Amino acid sequence: MHDRDTNFFYPGEKLLPDEMRITALGTGMPFVRRRQASAGWLVELGNGDKFIFDLGTGSSANLNALGVPHSLLDKVFLTHLHIDHFGDMGALYGMGMVRGRFTPLRVWGPSAAEERLGTAAFGKAFTDMMAWDIESRRGVVSAGTGWKTEFNEFDYSISGHTIFDENDVTIRAFPAIHCIDGPVSYRLDWNGLSMVYLGDGKPSQFMVDNAQNVDVLIHEAFVPAADYARQTHLPLQIAQNIAHGVHCPPRSAGKIFDLCQPRLGVIYHTMISESLRIPILDDLRVTWKGPAALAEDLMVLNVTKEHIIQRQACVPELAWPAPAHTHGQKRPAMERNKVPQMSQWLKDAEIAVEGVETNISDVDG
Ligand SMILES: [Zn+2]
Ligand SMILES: [Zn+2]
User: Fold this and answer.
1) How far apart are CA 49 and CA 228, in angstroms?
2) The domain 8-348 belongs to what CATH superfamily?
3) Nearest 5 degrees, angle CA 63-CA 48-CA 69?
4) Closest CA to 134 of 78, 96, 100
5) Strand 169-175 to 184-190 pairing
6) Which chain residues have CB less than 5 Å from ligand 2, an ion?
7) CA neighbor of 111 nearest in space, from 61, 52, 156, 72
8) DSSP secondary structure string, 260-271?
9) From CA 335, how far away is CA 97, in angstroms rounded?
10) Closest-CA residue to 195 (of 162, 225, 220, 171)
11) Distance 14 CA to ligand 1 centre (A)
12) Were 142 and a residue from 241, 253, 297, 331 both cysteine, which residue would form a disulfide, CB within 3.0 to 4.6 Å?
């Protein structure tokens, strides 16, 4: 621990075997900003496991900058199907396959009041939508079964049921109160450490039932209505409809922290600006006096039983992909015969350039 930089997290830093690392990939709203992508979190465990919780619009740029091999990013847990929570899934699916995820992209998410609104229907539509992207790339790179998706829909209405149990990691889901039926929150437990994540929603009894004494509780918190009205020139009532009616002001998140007593309460999913940090934290302090963090993109939390350390990741603006964890091993064979080929009349119009070999072949071919 002591040889780590105390101020910043640099990509490549090793996790201790008993440690959990939580990184904010996106802490903003659907209105994506250069400094604030939409919702996304990466949870890495000392046993080598990695989990993505939501991957909203813009958040994959932060994910890529962390230097985590895409070959290890095969598990995504969606809280709900708002674009600001799944907007970069296409990039993860397509690029993961190219970058060495030779196994299916596995996604978990809730059902809804109607079948067409559930994660299974979403997964089918998503996979169909991505067909051209995936099949066109499959003809150029070897992908194993990375071209496949596996969507696991579970009942959104059950509070605290286990929806993932592998490698001593347990993930439970419970309902969240947000817009219409369907949204959930997650609780991850491993090695005596725990993390609870509410994507969007209002304070609820489900949270109180499932997040008692958790180590890190990540909860949404909207800009206080009066500040939001001033900042956006909306009438106060409209600002309140949004901030309180569908979302949750900081003091409501604070109320949940007070009822659950986490070691650290994290608020996110807000619009940060220099003038709003103090009002946001002041509003949180109305109800929560304990340890708190206002998350910004690329905030890193190192969690052990002894301490929780908050730092900011220092990442390259122009990151290159990290090598796959299987780098150097034999890649699976390409399966060009299983995807559509370009028509001959298109190929015939290509202009040959001396010194440029344009035939596509396998690594060993
Ligand atoms: Zn939402
Ligand atoms: Zn949201």
Assistant:
1) 39
2) Ribonuclease Z/Hydroxyacylglutathione hydrolase-like (3.60.15.10)
3) 35
4) 96
5) antiparallel
6) 84, 200
7) 156
8) H--SEEEEESS-
9) 13
10) 171
11) 33
12) 331
Ligand 1 (single-atom ion) residues, CB below 5 Å = 82, 200
Tell me the two tokens of residue 228: 């939001």
d(CA 74, CA 326): 14
54 close to 40: Cβ distance less than 8 angstroms: yes
Alpha-carbon separation of residue 259 from 156, 248, 291 (angstroms): 23, 16, 14
- Phi and psi (nearest 5°) for 292? -145, 150
Give the tokens for residue 38: 């939409």
CA angle 307, 77, 92 (to 5 degrees): 105
CA 80 to ligand 1 center in whole angstroms: 7
The CA 40 to ligand 2 mean position distance, Å, reads 10
Helix (H, G, I), strand (E, B) or coil at 227: helix
Distance of CA 357 to the CA centre of its chain: 40
Contact 50, 68 (CB under 8 A): yes
60 CA to centre of ligand 1 in angstroms: 18
Q: Which ligand is nearest to the CA of 180?
A: 1
Unique residue bearing structure tokens 């196994």: 103
Look up residue 158 and give its two tokens.
């059950």
Residue with tokens 């399966």: 335
pLDDT of residue 294: 97
Domain ranges (residues) in the chain: 8-348
**pLDDT < 50 stretches in the chain:** 365
The ligand with the least distance to the CA atom of 28 is: 2
- Residues listed for the chain: 365
DSSP letter string over 301-346? Answer: EEE-SS-EEEEEE---TTPPPPPPTTTTSPPPPP-GGGS----HHH
pTM score above 0.85: yes
